[in-house]
């Protein structure tokens, strides 16, 4: 059975090739290469980030609905609990219907999705989830600066958002904060999954077991912080370090990324 597990996982992630071929990927923005000093870790040397492409908007309910219609193994009544907990897509009426709230949330970010589901969606678009460093690097941008590390107003606005209760209906993705790169909703909309491990591991299981997908988390870390002003990064760490890959949360969504060698013309 142990030998069969990789094959089972691969089959569970397979998507219909027609989705990647026929469904146009959403618009992407180019994030230029550079370096940044992560909040986490004892080594505070700048970390290089290669140029990459990032979805302009988080994935919406409408986009995820199209995905599950093409890939029924990811529908709410059919997904295996290994890959999504009991709250997966709990805000939808049925497998192929958002329900009475469709007019209000179709263009809002999808939430209540697991890391596994987010990963499968991106792969079906010929994309991937962004890494922790890619996400955090892009999230440092304000409206006018690629790096707003020293912008007190940027931090204050982020704190104000985190202090607000969740609205009954999340706003359309186009109504969210637009940063220097033209990316919407990195701050002020929903938390987002990333591809790799939480940077501050609470246990060493994942490292000792060969980086199993089942032990991947979303996140950014905050131990030995290099920038104590970036309190929202501490909040991300506190939230994300508690997650497991099959967890689903009412304010946790995702967006996809691509390596920059894929030309913008192909989007």
Pick out its properties.
single chain, 267 residues, alpha+beta, paralog of FGE (formylglycine-generating enzyme), three-stranded antiparallel beta sheet, 7 strands, 27% helix, globular, disordered C terminus
Low-confidence stretches: 16-25, 200-226, 262-267
Helix content: 25-40%
CATH class: Alpha Beta
What is the total tally of β strands? 7
CATH architecture: Alpha-Beta Complex
Strand content: 5-15%
CATH topology: paralog of FGE (formylglycine-generating enzyme)
**Helix-strand category:** alpha+beta
Count of individual domains: 1
Q: What coarse outline follows from CA principal-axis ratios?
A: globular
Task: Describe the main β-sheet briefly.
Answer: 3 strands, antiparallel
Sequence of strands across the biggest β-sheet: 1-4-7
- Give the termini distance in whole angstroms: 40 Å
Multimer state: single chain
Mean pLDDT comes to 79
Supply the number of helical segments: 9
**What integer value in Å does the Rg equal?**
18 Å
Provide the succession of SSEs: HHEEEEHHHHHEHHEE
Looking at CATH, the homologous superfamily is paralog of FGE (formylglycine-generating enzyme)
GO molecular function: formylglycine-generating oxidase activity
Pfam families: FGE-sulfatase
Domain Sulfatase-modifying factor enzyme-like: 47-257
Signal peptide: 1-22
């Amino acid at each position: 059975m142990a030998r069969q597990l990789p094959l089972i996982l691969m089959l569970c992630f397979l998507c219909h090739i027609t989705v990647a071929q026929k469904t146009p990927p959403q618009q992407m923005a180019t994030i230029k290469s550079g370096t940044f000093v992560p909040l986490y870790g004892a080594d505070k040397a700048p970390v290089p980030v290669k140029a990459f492409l990032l979805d302009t908007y988080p994935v919406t309910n409408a986009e995820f609905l199209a995905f599950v219609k093409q890939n029924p193994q990811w529908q709410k009544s059919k997904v295996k609990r290994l890959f999504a907990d009991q709250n997966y897509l709990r805000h939808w009426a049925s497998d192929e219907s958002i329900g009475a709230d469709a007019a209000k949330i179709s263009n809002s970010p999808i939430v209540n999705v697991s890391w596994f589901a987010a990963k499968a969606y991106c792969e079906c678009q010929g994309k991937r989830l962004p890494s922790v460093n890619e996400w955090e690097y892009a999230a440092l941008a304000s409206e006018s600066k690629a790096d707003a590390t020293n912008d007190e107003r940027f931090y204050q606005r982020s704190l104000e958002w985190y202090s607000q209760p969740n609205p009954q209906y999340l706003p359309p993705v186009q109504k969210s904060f637009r940063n220097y790169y033209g990316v919407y909703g990195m701050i002020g909309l929903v938390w987002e999954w990333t591809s790799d491990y939480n940077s501050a591991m609470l246990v060493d299981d994942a490292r000792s077991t060969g980086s199993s997908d089942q032990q991947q988390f979303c996140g950014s870390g905050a131990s030995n912080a290099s920038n104590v002003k970036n309190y929202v990064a501490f909040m991300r760490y506190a939230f994300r370090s508690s997650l497991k890959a099959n967890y689903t949360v009412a304010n946790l969504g995702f967006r996809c990324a691509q390596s920059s060698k894929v030309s913008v013309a192909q989007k």
